[in-house]
Amino acid sequence: PDWQHLKPAILGAIMEHFMSGAPVMASAAPTVEAGESGEFYDKADEELVLTIKELLDTRVRPAVAQDGGDITFRGFENGTVFLHMKGACAGCPSSTATLKHGIQNLLRHFVPEVQQVEQVA
Length: 121
Known about the structure:
There is one protein chain. The chain has helices at residues 3-20, 46-65, 88-91, 95-110, and strands spanning 32-34, 40-42, 69-77, 80-87, 116-119. The protein has four helices and five strands; from the N terminus they run H-E-E-H-E-E-H-H-E. It has a five-stranded mixed β-sheet with strand order 1-2-3-4-5. It is α/β, with parallel strands linked by helices and 121 residues long.
């Protein structure tokens, strides 16, 4: 089909939706704080985030540093902690197991609001 034939139908459907008063997006995005470090989290979760970061700095990072790696906090949203793995951790085959079983269990133990841990680039 030619764009010239599709364009009026597509624009009509979009305009009809806008005029209906229905929400443009399925759900509103949470208020996210993105600092200079590229971290993201809801301002309401700031105390949780500080606890998570403290646990990472005192219990996780020293352990992975011994193996030549590093793990940094990237964000927290809807019960999920997002971490970035660097150095030896980035290419290590057991990093997923470390992330899921070690770090996730540690954070869930001390911060019940944490449901899971995910790796981000």
